[in-house]
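Marked as duplicate of an earlier ticket. Keeping the data here for the record.
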Amino acid sequence: MQNRFGLLRVSLAVAVCAAVVAFVSAPAQAQAKKDKKEEPVRTQLDNGLKVIVIPTKRHSVVVTAMIYRIGTGDDMPGKAGLAHLISRVVPYAASQDYKEGTGLAALQKVGFQKNAEKDVGSRVFRDATCYYSILNSDKVELALKIEAERVTGLMFAPELVKREALKATEIVHAQMQEPEGAMLARVLGLVFTVHPYRFPVLGFERDITTIGVDQARAHYDTFYMSNSATLVVIGKVDPESVVGLVNKYYGSFPAGALVETVRKEEPPQTGGRSTVLRFDVPAERIMLGYAGAALASKMQAALLVVTDYLNDELKKRLVDGGKATEVSVSYDWLNTDPGPLVIKAVMPEGKEHVEALELIHATIGEIGDKGLDEK
């Protein structure tokens, strides 16, 4: 089965990890910079930890991001949300030098924006989990030291796991109470019938409630190690000094035994699949999902162009034409395996969705029949 690494998405906290992982995932030749003083410095420790330092004098901050090659796409059936739960437990878990919660608090105290939720945190994606901090550049050593404490040997207290599992289920429950959250979960299950991308990125409430401290600890012990991670440092730093600090704090960790999770291959789709959800809302909504292409596929560039085209064209045809009040097209393309392309539309109050759905199908059909103008 293929190795995994990829992702992308919203908000400052999310964008930090998303941009970093996108950079890590992108081909090196696509990352060239005009200013050679700001070219990425790449190295790898003897224990397998990959390190990327991107110096820039344009900002007085430093961003650190530790990315592990394990995400929701590696969750097993019945445990959808395990990667999400671990991403919540790790920042708080006690380590050799920090009691429970104190390492996280130390970073939050020196956060650049003095906003704990934006400056320091974690984010889980389909193919990876990212732990980040946004600090003043003189705090880079503190960030690297505390992040190193999380690589191995964390202590998972039962009450900590229970507390974070409760918070995780509350978040997932709230999402499922909203039409878009419930629709997306259902659409993913229609697009992917056996592949784990059918799970919502944050998992299922019913699954998270069954995860105990032993399973959480086993997941951490199995997948968190130096040779399954990439450490990225971006900001007003000296690359040589940063690499020296990385060797100081991470160099003694032994390489672990990499475990590849087995993902079921999605069978070819032979026909349309649909379902209906009923919510007490004034306007009908529709959501369509399609499986895209794998990260390494030559089709990725074409699908990104199609996504942009559909966003513009469907807004003209549906919103400007009075058939919908909102339309959006998103493509989760930075996934090792084919990710979902999702089209969403909200109807005017009292208007049925049939005409809008027909227009969407017609627009997609035109692309298949005629292609796109080179302009």
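See parent ticket for discussion. The chain is about 35% helix and 15% strand.
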